[in-house]
Batch of 2 targets.
Target 1
Amino acid sequence: MKEHVEIFDTTLRDGEQVPGCKLSISQKVEIAKELEILGVDVIEAGFPISSPGDFEAVHQIATVLKDTTICALSRAIETDIESAGAALKNASNGRIHTGIGTSDFHILQKLNSNRQDIIERGIKAVKYARNLCSEVEFYAEDAGRTDNDFLARVVEKMITAGATIINIPDTTGYCLPHQYGEKIAYLMNNVSNIDKAILSTHCHNDLGLATANSIAGVQAGARQVECTINGVGERAGNTSLEEVVMILRQHDHIQLNTNIQTEQLTHISRIVESEMNMPVQRNKAIVGENAFSHSSGIHQDGVIKSRETYEIIDPKDVGAGDSQIILTARSGRAALKYRAKLLKIDLNTDQLNLAYDHFLQLADRVTQINDYQLKELLNKEVLCHVRKLIKSGINTLLSL
Ligand code: KIV
Ligand code: ZN
């Protein structure tokens, strides 16, 4: 029996804090509604103390959405926590997400403090938040570079103080998958009260490992993944929601499932892309424009015979329609015949051979041949030629 992993979406908080990705309040509310349809368990709607606009966005989202848990971020500071609590006032299911840096880099260089003081500030923040909200998540910022022994002590104390979700952020995207997985496993094995909380992954993509680290985390026992649509987020981004969800779906043996309606993934990706004005790279896994496109002759021939030869995901499962056979100078006859057939033009072998020569000449001139160009090519050049051949055949017959 598969276990459930909670999907915690932070597109509207960690994703939105990226320069150029700023959203208006109404855009945030619209995206939050789409996230609820998608089936995420938690929406981190913002950081209310950061600006009146962000406070209002969290407030409106918490008022409008009734099924999904709405989370608000705060530092381990009373005014921050109060603001988060106030913004969540109308939430059916609210969660305050508070925390503090736990790596020596953060403790010594950012907070000018010491380990004992950090634990005390964390405990105070969790207790304060618990008075304002029934659910509290604690983040140990830069946990990726925090010594595991100390991290285990912090986690134990925060659970005792009342946090029921403990976030282990790899804030700087530093860990390798096995290191991040071992960190989660260490906490699962060395925190005496770990059964009273769930561990959450929160990985950044500075080394391109955010998704791999999140998967290593859930394989080691974490039961919540923090992620964003299209992997938007600080610097190189956060863990991409669509990647994690599809990995868990494609790899049955991991024995974990989510509530995500995967056929909504392409739709929400396009919304976030356009609202945030943040183009998705064409070759992005799952939602990139090329994710289900085939342009080389060998691959096209395989996909036309059987989609599974070169695709591990049915594009319909992520709402991406059909696999695309792209016509370029690398395409073969099978692709040309297939695309012509989609235009309701059936080419026999002779026509195909003839068309293919003309096709290659055109394909070498343009990068990609679209339907219009293909129709023109087949109608004008090839079929004309074929007609001429037929006519000259008839003339030859008549002259006999
Ligand atoms: O990356 C991080 O550490 C964060 C925390 C504030 C949760 O985003
Ligand atoms: Zn983050």
Target 2
Amino acid sequence: MLNISVTKTTAPKEKPEASTLGFGKFFTDHMFIMDYSREKGWYDARIVPFANLSLHPASTVLHYGSEIFEGLKAYRRADGKVQLFRPMENIRRLNNSAERLCLPQIPEQDAYQALTEFVKMEQDWTPSAPGTSLYLRPFLFGNDETLGVHAVHNATFVVIASPVGSYYKEGINPVRIMIEDEDVRAVRGGTGYAKCGGNYAASNRAGERAEKKGYSQVLWLDGVERKYIEEVGAMNVMFKIAGEIVTPMLSGSILPGITRKSCLEVLRKEGYKVSERLLSVDELAEALSNGTLEEAWGCGTAAVVSPIGELCYKGTKYIINDGKIGAVTQHLYDTLTGIQWGKIEDPFGWTCPID
Ligand code: PLP
Ligand code: COI
């Protein structure tokens, strides 16, 4: 069990208006920090006023990208209580990412304690307007003060929190997506299954190009053959093709999303035909052309589910479901957000109220 010291801010900030939230623009009054060294293990767990971090200019993270992060949300229920959604899944993924990047792992119960004590402290920052929540961003980085390239000896774990509204400006309205056939996000054997900063840095160029052409994001193809569908932007992707729900199987280059896992569990429980398999861009293009592609959506913590209304591949534009949100997409959105905001019963035991 961690011994977490608390230093309260002497200058609490004004809480932003719900209409101005957007995504990740505002931050709460405090942050959680804990340091690591090979000799001491994790030490000096503390909640302190939100402030800039001070890093040695040779700090590993600034040169060699030793950084991983997580993203999860605290939701305000109608009865005023605040609850987390599947936090242990994020903690396990954080440790899987740490293993891949040679960063120190955190005992699960300690990470859970850090997260819940921090959320308890900041819970007043959880907004209550429809569609809003408190986004939690745990991150862990290598912090050796040397330019040598090796697995780190010192690291820092931080959790910050941001009251958020919708991730895409379109909200739950369908977005336009471009299939990317040049850049790749990740390769098998690389870091695609880890949530590390470098994956996002490498994906920005394609995202920028898509935006310039009027698209919200790109649909990624695999890095070996540039043939199989992987993810959409920073989300997992699902399709309804001829009545069946199809999502790319976790190949090592795809991030195992908690929203993806939750969608699959909801769909399987309800008897939908669901398949996790390789899905080639040719099969997708064929389904787009012959009208068997009924729905497409991205899924991730930030947007929950985000319908895809248009896909562009090699200059050809395909409209999906008349550019409207489909019935399965809407059902998943309603079910997941219903459970997250405590509006419907949680038959899966996914929610963790903060006492
Ligand atoms: N894929 C990528 C690359 C992501 O960054 C995310 C977001 O966290 C996801 C998928 C969805 O994961 P989750 O549902 O756990 O948020
Ligand atoms: C998600 O939660 O779906 C994300 O991709 C988060 C993003 C800001 C990295």
